[in-house]
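It is worth pausing here to work through a concrete case rather than discussing structure prediction in the abstract. The textbook approach is simple: state the sequence, then state the predicted structure, then interpret. We follow exactly that order.
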Amino acid sequence: MSSSGSLSIQTRKTTKSALDSEVAPAPLEYKAPTSGLLYYLPRSWVPYAELIRLDKPVGTYYLFFPCLFSTLLAAPLTDPITTPSTVMGTTLLFLTGALVMRGAGCTINDLWDRNLDPHVSRTRLRPIARKAITPLSALVFTGAQLLTGLAVLLQFPLPCFYYATPSLLLVATYPLAKRVTHYPQFVLGLTFSWGAFMGFPALGIDLLSHTSAALAAGCLYASNIAWTVLYDMIYAHQDIRDDKKAGIKSIARRHEENTKAVLSGLAVVQTGLLAAAGWAVGAGPVYFIGVCGSAAATTGTMIWRVDLKRPEDCWWWFRHGCWFTGGGVAAGLAAEYAAHYFDIYDKNEPEVS
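Step two, the predicted structure:
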C-alpha cells in the first residue's frame, strides 16, 4: 500500500462522527442481528438497514433537533399564531425527513469510503465493505432515498425547496472534508444545523423580507454549529489512545490538554447565540430561562462530568447529551410558544388607565 493510501486510511479512522454513530470495533466475522429492530426485518433488508444506521438512530435525532428548534421559534411569529396541530404536523414531517436524509448521508459516506472501509476494523463489516451491497446497488438506493426525501420536502410550502436545496452539497461533500481538515466537526455542523433555517419557511415566514426572523435563524444556525462541534469533540475522545499509538491527528488530540476549556467556550457560544436568537424575535423571560438556562445547565453538566479518558463515558454523554440539551432547549421553546399562544405575556402586562 502506498504512503498516500496509508495516510488516507489513517485519516478515515479518526473521523467518526454523529453521521455514523458507532462505538465498539467491528467483530472479525459478520454476524446477523440477533435482537433489536433489525432482527425482525426480512434478511434481504438487513444490509440496507445497516447501511442507513437504522439501528443507531442518535444521528437522526441530532439532525432533527435544529428543525424542531426553528419550528418552535418561528411558530409565535406568524399572524395569526401557528396552531398546535400545525406545529405537530410540521414536526413529524421534519422527523421523517431527518430519518431519510441521515440515511442518505450515511450511504453517500460509505460509497466515498468503499475502498478504505475494508482496511479499518471499525468499518470493515459495513454492508458495502463486506460486499453485501454492491456500489451500484448502493448508488441506486441513494437515488431512491433522495427521491423519498424530495417527496417529503414537497409536502412543505414551495419556498422550503429553495432553502433546502443548498444543503445537498454539504451532505455530498462532508466525507471529502474529512480528508482535508483536522476539523471535520465544523463541516458536520454546517450540515447537521441546516434545519435551523427550515422551520421559518415551513410556517410561511419569508426570511428574505422578515429581518428579525432572518437574524434569529442565523443565530440559531450558528448556535447549532457550536453544539455540533461540542458533542462531536467529546465523541472523538473515544479513540484518542489508538490515535496516539498510530500517530494520527484528530480534533481530540489537537486539543487534548485543553479540551474542557474548548468545550466550555463552545458552550458559551452556543448559549449566547441562543440568547441572541431570542432577542431578535422579542422573546420573553420563559425563553431565556427555559432555552438558554437549559442549554447552559446541560452542556455545563456534561463538560463537568464527562471523563474524557474513558471511551465508554464519552459515548454515554454523546448519546444522552442529545436528549439532555436538545430536549431541554426544545422544551424551553415549546414553553415560550405556549406563553404566546395562550397570551400569558399579555395577561401579565399592567393595564394603562
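Step three, interpretation. The mean pLDDT is 87. Residues 20-29+39-344 form a domain with the Farnesyl Diphosphate Synthase fold (CATH 1.10.600).
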